[in-house]
Amino acid sequence: MDTAITASTTAPARGGGQPLLRQKGAETQAFGTLKQLPIGLGHDTRMYACQRLNHVLADTQILYSLYKKHHWLMRGATFYSLHLMLDKHAEAQLAVVDALAERIQSLGGVAVGDPRHVAELTSVPRPPDGVEKVPVMLSRLLDAHERILIDARDAAARISAEGDEGSADLLVSDVIRTGEAQVWFLAEHLVDTPLVRG
């Protein structure tokens, strides 16, 4: 008796609950293109904003990943506090990632999402695959933040000049303010202060 399961030769009944698996098709919108949305912003303004936001988005996704990696790899006497702080910072960066991606979509663009595509767009240097010393990991996070903050400030000013105040506000309110606060917390962990004697 043959116990192998064979595919049914009959089509599933309509509404029968069978998922339509392994579907394939062409892209419906290519990366770097816009669909028209009635939001009162011209094509060129929206295109420029999407390009700048996608670059910040790619860097922010890498920053989020660095936070998670360093959260897992913390060592030493400050392990617990840094482990928790880095995870909290990662959660805040994930919220920024989502806000940036949704803004790009609301402009009619396509948000960068695939990690392999993100790696092609980011300006944040790739860290070693292994473990670094704790101060080096914190310094790496600070460097990524600074790159994003410089880019976000420039993008906010230029996008605002193009008339897209919504994108400029997102960059200032979410990317810059969140980044500046996190830089402060990180940098204070690199101050060489005695723990016992003053």
Written account of the structure:
Helix content is 60%, strand content 0%. It is mostly helical. The longest helix has 31 residues, at 43-73. The relative contact order is 0.15.
Tag the structure with descriptive keywords.
198 residues, mainly alpha, 5 helices, 60% helix, globular
The termini sit apart by: 84 Å
Total strand segments: 0
Radius of gyration: 22 Å
What is the residue-averaged pLDDT?
92
Number of helices: 5
Helix content: 55-70%
Strand residue content: under 5%
User: Low-confidence spans: pLDDT under 50, at least 5 residues?
Assistant: none
Largest sheet: none
Secondary-structure-derived class: mainly alpha
SSE succession: HHHHH
Strand-helix topology:
Layout (H helix, E strand, L loop, with lengths): L42 H31 L5 H28 L8 H7 L12 H28 L3 H24 L10
Helix pairs in contact: 1-2, 1-3, 1-4, 2-5, 4-5
